[in-house]
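Below: protein 1.
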Amino acid sequence: MAEALVDVLWFIDGSEDEQMDQDDAVKVMEGVAHVVSTLSDDQQQELIALLGEMAAAETNPARREFLEEFPEGFWLVDDPS
């Protein structure tokens, strides 16, 4: 399930204006961020660990970066700045 979610978000994140309305893309991304932020702490930690495993196994550098940034970008961890 997590891999399917990442695939959809990866597509949306990389979409050009001609492929997807950017306002709709932002709404989807914000909606996902809200849903994952409502997971229990244990579920969030599980998802973060899974994303880390997926990133470690990823051979596409851009997708690996997306996976590594997912926890912060989708409000699973606090912004370190």
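Below: protein 2.
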Amino acid sequence: MTGGLPKGEVFSADCPSRRLLGEVTSKWGVLVLVALREGPLRWSELLRRIGGVSEKMLARTLRSFEAEGLVLRDARPVVPPHVEYSLTEAGHEVTARLVPLVAWAEEHAIRTSGTGDRAHG
């Protein structure tokens, strides 16, 4: 590690870690991971939980995280189809690092809103 960062090429434009970092730290990426931290959720539950996310962005984010090994898609062969999304071990690991950031953002937004009584969210 140099200066607290791993020896890698994250600053290089073509480093794969930069793409993954961008996906994980995107607005929808953070919210999907944090929403799944307490257990599996179905598609419709995620859509309701994450206010403002479009179906297209939710699908894109979930597909990306599944490909990266952060989210597991469990499709059960029943009628009607039952699909649940959950965090993998790597997903739990990265989410544990994101939760303090989300908590800081919520707290900071309240402190800087000027009223001090703004609701979380």
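Residues 89-112 form the longest helix (24 residues).
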